[in-house]
TrEMBL record:
Pfam families: F420H2_quin_red. This is Nitroreductase family deazaflavin-dependent oxidoreductase. It comes from the Bacteria. InterPro entries: F420H2_quin_Rdtase, Split_barrel_FMN-bd.
């Protein structure tokens, strides 16, 4: 796992609320798999053909990833738009790097990120 999960807990309680309030980050809205509560998670959302790709800085065991995989969908607020996303699936680094546009900065190898989440934009 690239980043320790304890740092994710700090982010969730300290930095994420500030990022959401700033309105400058893409925000993923998802439902808790056990609680049924609605959660808002600021993320880097990289547009790819037919959807979005998310870098899994904490790996696929992060709560938000598990919630999205269990629900099979989420909503993304990006660039002032709300998009429905479906068909979440975890991709390996090689597959993700092939679909990322060249203009997107790759995560530093130092972080050892090996998983990405791909979601398709739902047809409206």
């Amino acid at each position: 796992m690239p980043m320790p999960l304890w740092w994710g807990h700090v982010n969730k309680r300290v930095f994420n609320p500030r990022a959401i309030a700033s309105g400058t980050w893409p925000v993923l809205t998802h439902v808790g798999r056990s609680s049924g509560r609605t959660f808002y998670t600021p993320l880097d959302a990289h547009p790819v053909d037919g959807g979005y790709l998310f870098v899994l800085v904490y790996g696929s065991r992060a709560d938000w990833v598990r919630n999205v995989l269990a629900a099979g969908s989420a909503r993304l607020r990006v660039d002032g738009r709300e998009l429905d996303l479906t068909a979440p699936r975890v991709l390996g680094a090689d597959e993700a790097r092939r679909i990322l546009p060249p203009s997107v900065a790759r995560p530093p190898r130092l972080l050892r990120i090996s998983e990405f989440l791909r979601m398709d934009t739902a047809r409206q």
